[in-house]
Give the backbone structure.
Amino acid sequence: MWKIAQSLGVSVGYFFEEEAKINASPVVKKNSRKRIIASNNNAIYELLSADLNRKIEFLYITIKVGDYSSKDFVTHEGEECGLVIKGKLMVKMENEEYILEEGDSIYFDSTIPHRYINVGDEVCESIWAMTPPSF
């Protein structure tokens, strides 16, 4: 679905557009996060905003030991910024690799081919902001 959305120039949220909820809470409780499952990766993506129809995508990403966000490099329009809150993460780009540990952050142009790999010995948890939304 992500590839279809990308080819149409829309976010995945476009296909699940929900009617605006009057007086909807801006708070997303930990146990109420929407999970985004993509067939082409091993990461667990949890949405930190109420839905996918925003100008920025805010995600909590969990990657198991030795796993990766995507088998292949991905590219998409925009920029993204990530913060590792637990574990050790390699942000592998087309020509460079960056190792991030707890508390480290990264900011880059999303048109550069990239993927994330857990290179630590525990589950890696990170928080990401992407604009415009890519899911």
The CA atoms of residues 40 and 70 lie 6 Å apart.
